[in-house]
Amino acid sequence: ETGVTQTPRHLVMGMTNKKSLKCEQHLGHNAMYWYKQSAKKPLELMFVYSLEERVENNSVPSRFSPECPNSSHLFLHLHTLQPEDSALYLCASSQGSQGNSPLHFGNGTRLTVT
Amino acid sequence: GENVEQHPSTLSVQEGDSAVIKCTYSDSASNYFPWYKQELGKRPQLIIDIRSNVGEKKDQRIAVTLNKTAKHFSLHITETQPEDSAVYFCAASTTGNQFYFGTGTSLTVIP
User: What is the number of H-type helices and E-type strands within chain A?
Assistant: First the structure.
């Protein structure tokens, strides 16, 4: 079983809804990430938290709002999304801040915006 | 920023043959290169990685080679099996938790 747990697995929401994605890691890692995976595109880095501080915000629209209350939990708050935001959202964690330890991914949340 | 290109986008091989996937990167500061396998409906999983102070690494049927001068690295799978069928992603990382991924290779192993 994965050490990174994401909920929900599937989410359908209208453009005016507000929802949140949750991620929890049980690996003792100190960095957590949100990635967006769309068909035919590379994995797109959205946000990075290292030691609970946001260290990267990759020009993500403000309708996506991350939250990292502690080193084990990461949220992605969603509001007024667009249909093109439909994708698989993957959470990951890693140990260390030097970028040379592997990412461990969760199973993702399949998001559909209607 | 870093740019990682991956080829081919699709690859079909007969069971027992070898498969090779190639990636290039642009940032000479990249120093860590993991490879991930993603089966349909599942999360990406690390299968092998290599750091910039090493030219080659092997783990059973899987090997990765790195040419820092040319800025390219490759995944080699020998004696392919149907369960090797999946999408494979390469990535390059510098310091600071930045991972840049290729667009993926869909590998099909034909029994």
Answer: 0, 11
Whole-angstrom CA distances from A25 to A22, A94, A95, B78, B99 are 10, 10, 11, 34, 19
- pLDDT tens, B59-88? 999 999 999 999 999 999 999 999 999 999
Under DSSP, is residue B33 helix (H, G, I), strand (E, B) or coil? strand
Give the pLDDT of residue B103. Answer: 93
CB contacts under 8 A, A 58-87 vs B, are none
- pLDDT exceeds 60 at position A1: no
Structure token digits, residue B98: 């930045």
Distance of CA B48 to the CA centre of its chain: 8
Interchain pair A100, B102: CB under 8 A: no
